[in-house]
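Supplementary Data S3. Sequence and structure tokens for construct A.
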Amino acid sequence: MKALLITALISFLCSIVFRLMHWPGVALLILLALMCVLTFSLINSFVKKSVWKISIFGGWVLAAWTIYIVFRSFYWYCGPRIFGINSMFLFNSILTIIYLITQSKQLSKTVLTLSVLGLLLHFTPSYKICYFFDLNEVINKEFNKVNFSSWDKYSWFLYIRGEKEEALKANQKAIDAYTYNDTGVSNYRLRVDDEILTQLENHKRGIINDTWEDSYIRMF
């Protein structure tokens, strides 16, 4: 039981490192972490002895927040909005409130920690998540010179946030990165074709005219 949670934690931490370094295998590590947590929650429902004070209900709260964190960090669809809040987050919040009320005498630090992480991630703008993982200068300074897809993604999240000027700057960096990547000078090189440059230019016009609707370029 503990091994499942430890494996999930290690896989999750490794996935962060892999994502920061732009290494392949992030999806597999995330899937492994998710499967470990779900397996733990299922087994925990039938085992009397609890692990780290995680009750049966607490195990499913843990699983719910794990799923949300994965979806949120990868910008996946988290359900329709209810009162302006995405339904997955709303559902998890209700679960957590019930957990806090009904099991106040045996709260698990593991469940609480993941709940807080989910809350923090929810209120962190997507463009900040994108910049941290894909464009931070500490790790990605050189790769940023050619990483037009991440600059385009960053531009999109700034645009939908209403930061048009910053979105335009990011879009220009995407175009510059594409141009630099196309020269073949850099040690890093991404797939290029004329359609990508056209898309980037269309996105620039979309920002200026408030007509950008086709989201960002997806390389994989």
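Construct B, processed identically:
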Amino acid sequence: MTSTGSVTASWLRPIPPGAAPSLVRAGHLGHTGRRLGDLVQGRPPGVTGSQWSTAGRASLDLVVCAADTGLPRFAVRFTAPAPDGSAARRSERLTDAVCVAVGLPLVRVESPTLGGAEQVRRFVEYVLDARAYADGTDPDGGDTVGFRDIIGRLPDGRRGPVNDLGALARVEAVEAYVAGRIADPIVRGLHVRWTDGPAEGWAWAEVRPGRCLLERVRLTSRGFSCGVDPGRLAEDLAAVALGERLRDLDGAAPSLLDRDELLRRVRALAARRDSFDGGFAFDHLCAD
């Protein structure tokens, strides 16, 4: 089973029935253009006026509500990475605190590349489908194949995991290699889960000999689960972001990393394995 956290009806305000949704899927309605303050009936306890003023203005890319009641079930927010100690990072912490106080799970995707309306919509459709699948399966009854591991026909005709969000990017990398646009057709990646923190996914491809394009995504999903491991989901999102960058290789050129520098970064991440839930499962990527 999955969870979207407990919705505190006394604090969350239903979205009126007359509001036209931008998404209808699996018994849920999705609404864009909402601020956190629009969803909450007053300042929750334990939140100061200054904190509420900041968090209440936080823009949410998509608010997903139960179709029958209009009550928010979770919200999604795509943001650019912000340095620790910055005003943006402080605002995110305040937003998290208010969401916890009112029982609204907030799924945050941090990426310098992702965040377009279509990308947000596809992501929400994916997690709703994954949750519906998980709710309809029973591992104790022999249902052992997770949503992310379902095998079927991929966009290039091969068989593989059809619910890999990065599948199209992997196909595009092969096509770019065949066309002579990149040096290696393989999209590589890794993921970790920081203890009491976000999941982080990396994806990269060798675009020029010895020069790689790297995308990193952080996924925070407190109080929310869709049945797909957050680390794998973050890595798949990083592959999606990489696919976006591969479509504009001229624009990506200044961001290319030397392969040795990428290896150094992977090893530096591996050295922090004690900070991860589940350790570091990608030591094979640390070899020369």
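Residues 165-278 form one domain. The two ends are 41 Å apart (CA to CA).
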